[in-house]
Amino acid sequence: xxxNTKESGLEALIVNYLVSNNGYEQGENNxxxxxxxxxxxxxxxxxxxxxxxxxxxxxxFNSEINKTKFLNRMxxxxxxxxxxxxxxxxxxxxxxxxxxxxxxxxxxxxxxxQLYEKNIFSVTxxxxxxxxxxxxxxxxxxxxxxxxxxxxxxxxxxxxxxVEDAVYQYKTDRDPRELLFNFGRCMVHFAVDDNEIxxxxxxxxxxxxxxxxxxxFNDGAGxxxxxxxxxxxxxxxxxxKKDELSNIIENYAQIVEEKxxxxxxxxxxxxxxxxxxxxxxxxILADVSSKGVGQKYLIQHSAGSGKSNSIAWLAHQLxxxxxxxxxxxxxxxxxxxxxxxxxxIKNTIKSFMQVAxxxxxxxxxxxxxxxxxxxxxxxITIVHKFPxxxxxxxxxxxxxxxxxxxDEAHSSQSGNMSAKMNMALSDNYEDGExxxxxxxxxxxxEGRKMLSNASYFAFxxxxxxxxxxMFGVPYPAEGKTKHRPFHIYTMKQAIQEGFIIDVxxxxxxxxSYYKIAKIIEDDPLFDKKKAQKKLRKYVESNETAIGLKxxxxxxxxxxxxxxxxxxxxxxxxxxxxxxxxRAIQYFYAIxxxxxxxxxxxxxxxxxxxxxxxxxxKLTESSVNGFPSNEIEKKLKKDPFRILVxxxxxxxxxxxxLLHTMYVDKMLSDIKAVQTLSRLNRAHPQxxxxxxxxxxxxxxxxxxxFSKYYTTTILSDVTDPDKLNDLExxxxxxxxxxxxxxxxxxxxxxxxxxxxxxxxxLDVCAKIYEDDLDETxxxxxxxxxxxxxxxxxxxxxxxxxxxxxxxxxxxxLSFLIxxxxxxxxxxxxxxxxxxxxxxxxRAEAQATMSIIMEDSPAYEINPVxxxxxxxxxxxxxxxxxxILSNFHDLFGNIPWKDEDQVKKxxxxxxxxxxxxxxxxxxxxxxxxxxxxxxxxxxxxxAIINLMTDNMEIFKQFNDNQSFKKWLxxxxxxxxxNNKGEVFKGDTAV
Length: 988
Fold this sequence. Notes:
By secondary structure, this protein is α/β, with parallel strands linked by helices. The chain is 43% helix and 18% strand.
């Protein structure tokens, strides 16, 4: 008989495996009670077997009335608290409490093992669940002790149906008003085919939100080929195993309640772990369980990966992880720079343990000491409070073991804070009264080490080189020691799975074109480089420029975002500015233009502290008219739609309604990724995002995202011998002697008054000023800084301490502050008084999609140990030349008839696209060759234009900036690998 390749064949295969290999019972439709959505046969079988006396007390089998009363009570509890809570906590039916599920037993508890074995896991095929329509059947449902916890719809690619058809079936055929599909009635609903799995925790008709539940493949979405069977068999072979399903019920799945402080409404969300969260936390716990305390773990999980839940699940399970029957950790400390994480962790843990007895929030050293003494298992603290908190923890706590979870690792674990933290918790640190200076030095060294009585768990989406070297897993490769994360969920996978939006898909660079006029008769000399910087800043912060850019932003927001109903008409925008001054300028310019446009919307301003503007001292609240802590809340509600920021809300702000970003600030590396990633949070009605960038080159943004798109690894370790080289170079200047180092260090460590330190440091600073020329001063100071920076990092990871380096580091950190910077004359001074802005326009280039290269990993270099100590020679040039050069660079083109020029340029792409050689290259060659043919075709088109518009021909041949812009624009607009001819005008 041939293989059954139909859907029923896959269904039979799964059910048979669950029954034969996983110890499930197979249910029948006549066991199922549609009125209560339960497998009644198995519910009463379980209760009779485990709690017969309680059933007797309730008289369930003595009369139908009692039975109905019991079933109604149970139904009410499930409707109120959800199936997960009812399984964990049981139900109270006067006068008894019934257990409806027995929890996973600990190793030593034999009685609990026997009870757990009495749980009945069952599966029912083709479940006819509907009360009214007897033809409707579900492919299969999973029950525990007769209570449904999972439903499943299967599809089969061999019969030309896939997971999306299963999702469609749930959305259109499975009525959420049907009891089985009510919110909280089941833990999760799976749509499954032989390639992929999707899950949903709340069925809501067409609004049901299904998310992938896949392993990931090649750092992206999907599942890897399975040499032993079907790609998705991990569902029935791993996830639906009894012990794994119990683990999910007991430690992950939950309903979280959030109360809106204004409306007092409670929003209930059911959470089921995503595959990477489950595999990540489980992998860490297994490693901790086998290796014990003293390990380091770096978890590179992309933004939007659900880090808050992963951290909460890890924290509550680390509390109870054991080795040989003994708890490994006494306390779990969570260090974060997100204030709202505290609330999220408490909300998540609430379902699993008594929060009041378990979780504490520490804001001062006294708090932490008391929380540890009170036996609080999970202690949450904000990064900037942490150093103070660690100051006076009692010695008794150094005998304890700690798990330290670091949220966004790169922002918290470096230098002295780490040293203080480690000294406070280390069990080798005793405060003796007759310590020598040497003892104290060794103690600080010990403090800088990664502690043996703590394990570190560092979560970040964007690991820096220091973070990788400090927390990553070392491995040998190519004759070097490289470092990689312990667990990975990449940006690539998160985007492909739809957990976050690809913020580079609709990216529009905006170029500025302006002319600056010389308003003095003289032609003085200025420093060319500094003058260019000043001119750029002057132009971009000029009121005319700000006003024009504000108009572009507001018009775009109304015409492309609001008018097109983005995020169901709820979309918000963010304006990124380079300074508080610029943010305030933008806020007023945007607000004025919103009024002028008669817009119903308003802008909100965000910056820290107070700032003087227009002769007044301004704060966020004085400008906005409401307190700073309400900004996030206000932005969710109309009329507030546009948030203007200066270094605030650029990291850690997770607002799914944020759709569009207007960038007028230079961004690179992690800052670029973190800033643009504010847009990436998913929402059921969010299908795209917009970025309009007034300040950055496309290549810079692409390079920044490339580092963190897949796995980030460290190419090599930092070479400690570089410290020997730096020390040798520093000492060769004879600014100080060992006497100076020893004296300063001894005075400092013994708490001497400040006036004892200064005279010694001042002597060394005088030698630096008198004996070193300007070049030597720059070299000495930069190498001293490089030494303290590199040593501060290396000291925490090197296996052996070096007391001499420690002393030199302390001494140099004091001395550096005393060394004056080399005197530098500003040779660009006065340039702004000699010029005026003649004209300004900002122009959107072609909107593009920045495509990330698909490499398996991105290597970053180790911490730099060299000093950059060269003072550049100023390049002097005439004012007229600087202005001319500036206009060439930044697009001063005084067109005679601008409208005609625009019209001609708009028609060029279609002319180029008709070129046969270019079409052939697009179809049959790679992108590079197509670009060459595009440029040849463009040259022909420009020559043909000569008779109609000499200006364009002249600019194309004389102005490289214009030529590059036109060439790039034409290629971006016309290129496609089918060789299709571009038709229509381009917006210029």
